[in-house]
User: What shape does this take?
Amino acid sequence: MALEGKHILVTGAASGIGRATALRLAEDGATLTLADINQEGLTETASMISAPIEIIAYDATDIESCQSMMAAATANGLDCLCNIAGLLDWGPTLDFDEARFQRVIAINLSSVYSLCRAALPDLIKSGGNIVNMASTAGLLGTPYSIAYSASKHGIVGLTKSLAVEFASRNVRVNAVAPGQVNTPMAHQAPPEGDVDWPLMMRNAPKLPDGICEPADIAEMVAYLASDKASKITGSVINIDGGQLTG
Ligand SMILES: NC(=O)c1ccc[n+]([C@@H]2O[C@H](COP(=O)([O-])OP(=O)(O)OC[C@H]3O[C@@H](n4cnc5c(N)ncnc54)[C@H](O)[C@@H]3O)[C@@H](O)[C@H]2O)c1
Assistant: This one.
């Protein structure tokens, strides 16, 4: 029970990787607060866990909603923040308007900044840590994903910068960068319009069974959240079936 006595907030917990992470952290004995815009999905996730769970609906595009969610979630202190909520919206850049770009940045990057900033005072008190969800799209240029790739490169920079700034206060900050994961996000309709498919597929996983399951990612989040990773900070760990091997 590596996380017994630890209070962990997981965003994006209504679905996919966030749900798998909640289940995995619960197995390790963590006390959980789960947040997402999807209240029904949160209730479903909570019903899969036998321990009492606090669930909070919030909208990552709304700064006040982020702040009030954090105020409720940190009322009894916090040991770990897992920023997993995210949005994939993609398409040819010349068709990708300002509003779509800003929405992806708001959910995937700006809200993560707000939640980290709100959590840090409690994490300094507890000697806690943050695990952010990046992507291989945050480590290499990704066609037709101008906003998503920019937001995930932003997560990498935010993670490393916080790690440097808060290491002396004993707060660790890491990120996981998944490749392709079998979640509702990965099954979204592909981009419409003028798409060069060979270009899009050029960074496929190399392993024969290289598509990840949400539990593969959750395992790493649980490790980074625990004291087993006490010497790891500022790391971005890709789990991608060999997508980035070259
Ligand atoms: N699935 C993949 O292939 C993959 C690959 C790399 C990174 N990721 C990242 O993993 C994370 C989880 O994605 P997933 O694959 O589990 O997708 P998912 O769609 O199953 O889950 C995303 C969750 O984020 C929540 N969310 C979306 N907009 C929100 C908002 N405005 N406010 C609050 N919550 C909101 C959704 O309700 C959902 O529960 C994301 O950050 C995603 O970018 C996914």
